[in-house]
Amino acid sequence: MKKLYLIIITIVINGFVAKAQLDDSYKTLADKSFNNKDYYQAAFYYKKIAGNPTNSKTEVPFRGNQKDTKKITSSADKMFIQYRLAESYRLYENYLEAEGWYYRVLNDNGEAQYPLTRLWYGVCLRANQHFDESIKQLDQFLASGKGDEKQKATAHKEIDNCNFAKEQYQYPQLLDVVKMKGDWNSDGSDYAIVKRDDNFMFTSSRIVKNDKRHLNRIYTAIKGDGNKPVVVNFKSDENKTELEYGTPVLNPANNRMYMTRWYKTGSKTVHAIYYSNLADGQWSAPQMVNNNVNLTGFNSIQPFITPDGKRLYFVSNKPGGQGGDDIWFSDLDAEGQPTNSTNLGPTINTSYDEQAPFYDAKEKRLVYSSKGFIGLGGFDFFESFGDGTQWTKPHNMGYPMNSAKDDLYYSPDKNDDNKFFISSDRASECCLNLFDVYDRRHLVTGIVVDCDTHLALTGVKVSFVDSLSKSVLKTMILGKNAKYLFSVNTKRPYNLVLEKTGYFTKSVPVPLTGKMLNDTLFNPEICLQAFEVEKPIVIKNVLYDFNKATLRPESKIVLNGLVKILKDNPKIKIELASHTDSIGSDVYNLKLSQERAQACVDYIIVNGIKEERIFAKGYGRTKPIAPNSLPNGKDNPDGRQLNRRTEFKVLKTQ
Question: Under DSSP, is residue 539 helix (H, G, I), strand (E, B) or coil?
Fold first, then answer.
């Protein structure tokens, strides 16, 4: 029995020794990968240690017989592994895994040793759409006073991102974003799709035939015919280690392809823009574009050619920019070579990274991705309008065009104006995928008429207003046809505000269906009501029971229209008057009409109109607008009906 006990102890001790040696080897590999910025590999090895595997088998072969003398046994070592694992996941943008490991560091009181933990934990929470908790953690980081000015600025920017994202998710753009099915997306990255006649070209990092590695290559396929994507081959090329291609774009004749081409030299990856010509169905060996674009020692990537073939937009970190990757353009000569190089400037570029430009020369519209502005997180799509030197302030294209992760490579479908393509890693822990985007945005249109004559009104100022922010998004002055036209892009509530001198201003809600809601008060059309100061306007169908001043339910519905006029025209003051026919004494009619007028005013005040803006006046039978009796002395029911009226008049407009 004693011998068996000693054997068991020996086995356990040997197991601990083997485990320690295994952890040492993993840590060496993990640290080396981390220092080489191979964060995916680093996370794999750190996870082996942090996950405490119970067997001695490895899933990745050791690179030699490397061992550390220091064992992973202390709490400091444990904290180091957890923090490095969180960092590795974050730096290759696996925020879901990173969030949990940063939480462990915080939960194990590791913040004193790693003071940026709460900042990066907040960033991961934002990326995983836990916006309120992210704001809480980032506020705590700022309150602690930890971090330098750049890190504090990152925390402030991420808080702004959270607040922006919360609103975007509540009121999304009218877009349907659908991940492409079938062989378009692989187990690696798939991105930067462009259309060439009926074919599509895109980049994919799927496993190349006869090679077990994932390498970026350009593929072509016909969408919808069931054919698998086929790799694009080029004639003999330099024999570089891990040579890769991506982000293709074609000239107008479809016989020249510009692309990014990169390879590793030691631990450094070299990127440059190349071109290849198509002849007899074969793409030539890629040639580097000249040094107006490719400056030695710096990267140039992601080319885009304008439809006329005269300008190349691209991305580079070369000197002369705003910092990081910037958007540039070069004019092309007849041979397709750049003749110059111009940075798009500080309106478009930031000290962060900008990538993946697309330019519509007809609309003068630039769509690109940036990390430098307020957005949902990661790379967001922005659009700006300009000619290459002057640009409008970039506008975030919103959710679901953008997500909490990276969104890049906008490309329109040339056969469908309501469809385009993007690349995003929103549906993946690691990699970009290809998405179809269906544009459900629509136009709201109609005409404005006079409520009394029903004739078209020219000169009306119509403003398209965001109902939440109250900001005016667009304004137009109506011409002879009195027609307005606005684009509805999101599920946010909007109003049309219509203004014309001599008419009541009117605010009309815009529903998401693209059809205007029925108008109020006077007419179910969209119309403006004319008025003159001190000139009465009859309000039809304000009804009371006989000999009473109590408003009937249908009367309240009508008065709601007057409430709206007063809210849409906050500077006017009115008198609301009630009139009777000639039946009854003057004293009786004056008293009844005053009570009825006051009942209307009381209802309007209860519904949000200030008391000093509306006055009740009963006129009894003193101001008939029709005879109460016929010339022969008989009763005139029609005339008395007209005289029993409620009306209002504008007393003051300022």
Answer: strand
